[in-house]
Amino acid sequence: MVMNMEQNEDTIVRLSSVSFQYEGKPVLEGIDFSLHRGDFVGIVGPNGSGKSTLMKLILGLLTPTEGTVELFGKPLSSFRDWSKIGYVAQQAAHGTGGFPATVKEVVSSGLVGKLGLFRRFRAEHHAKVAEVIRRVGLEAKAEERIGNLSGGQLQRVFIARALVSEPELLVLDEPTVGVDQDSIEQFYELLRSLKEEKGMTMMIISHDVGVMTQWVNKVACLQRRLHFHGSPDDFAHNQDRILQSMYGEGIRLLAHSH
Prior knowledge:
Elements: E1 11-22, E2 25-36, E3 40-44, H1 51-58, E4 66-71, E5 74-75, E6 85-88, H2 103-108, H3 112-115, H4 123-135, H5 151-163, E7 169-173, H6 181-198, E8 201-206, H7 209-212, E9 218-223, E10 225-230, H8 232-247
Parallel strand pairs: 3-8, 3-9, 6-7, 7-8
Antiparallel strand pairs: 1-2, 1-4, 4-5, 9-10
Helix pairs in contact: 4-5, 5-6
């Protein structure tokens, strides 16, 4: 598949010939990848395929061994406006059972990076916190301690925390791990509404190809190299070839009903 890598004002992320090594071992090779304003892109691949490394390169947590990364039209080395990017970490909601914070307090902490550690919240900041809590459907739980919430509710708390600073790009790393199926459906409905109503650009890393491809508008298949980057329909029509390219012969995608 030929990808149009032409830079324009709608290009949020651009990777050009990016490679990365850990202690001399290749993890990513020759990655050309672009994310445009309004895209909802799903990054899929097996364990060890380089998905988390790709995400860390985009978040500025790693520097490419070769190639360049650009964010919002600026080279990674000179990009400073990190409030434009919201991030929900892998298993962010796990291990919080004993943490004595309320939903409102956790969401409010998402403004610290934008306002500074010692800036006092004004009325508009409290209003913004209340709005994003309402937006993720947790208005009735605002004063609840997060240790009392379900896994699906916790994920919504951390999405609200990422949204409260009004980012232009939302990055989610395996956000549905350990979440029940009903909550996963609600989770993707929330993401779709954010895309449709706010025009938000999103990138999600997931192992669950079957579920995730029902919701995104672009799919990127990663196994050290980028084996596919296109629409879910194109992926569905070419999945046998793509999976053989990633894994070798004799691999098929199995659908699991829940």
